[in-house]
Amino acid sequence: MAGAQWEKEMSDTKVYLLDGGSLVLDGYHVFWNRGPGGEVRFPVYSILIEHREGRFLIDTGYDYDHVMKVLPFEKPQQTKDQTIPGALKLLGLEPKDIGVVVNSHFHFDHCGGNKFFPHAKKICHRLEVAQAANCQPFEHLGYSDLTFSVEAAEARGQGEQIRHGQTRANTTFEGIDGDVELAKGVKLIFTPGHSIGHYSLLVEFGTRRPILFTIDAAYTQKSLETLCQASFHIDPVAGVASMRKVRKLAEDHDAELMYSHDMENFLTYNTGTKFYG
Questions:
Q1: Among this protein's residues, is 216 annotated catalytic?
Q2: What is the model's pTM?
Q3: Which of 19, 109, 145, 216 is catalytic?
């Protein structure tokens, strides 16, 4: 009876992948100290969860103008429909329809659309904003889009990034730590290494296998299989431990794995108006 009740309660959960365009990195950055080298074009997407407890948006992609100004070597490709407002519009939604925004971490390709959600409750690991505000020298490009936080932008002397209407109050985050249940069957999995407060995501459904989104704990399937993280990280030892945690969690839950920056796999994923649930 308990199992049937769980299935009934989770049957309304839907997960949409919001296609945010693509970027380019060299293979030695995607597969740190392993390669092979050469340009690798990879997808960027956000995760929208429709749940009985509300709408939850995990990450907000990248801002095209920011990338062209600061990281043009990543050769962004992004249509109007691949911006956060554009991707939501395909679903008949607007940014104001999203109640909660969760950032897995604050690298530029995961927070570029935060500025569209001043009204939403915002959640991240308790150390992420402070790290973005005072990051290591080798993290400056990763934490280069600071439009998600007036506090971080001002601390880095980048106040000119702040949009009209953004304040400390409406860019303030609830800080969390460890593994956290965001809503019933929706769990944030603490997987540090890529960043100091990185989160992966496990979503359970009523009638299908769970999905475990590695996010940047493992860019690609090959990354996870070989325990080879990307070169953009703060703690490579913690990163390997997090990949092992993700692999065990997927095995324990019989979860389908989905990767953040794996073009081959992404081309098989449901995007746009198609969903999982």
A1: no
A2: 0.96
A3: 109
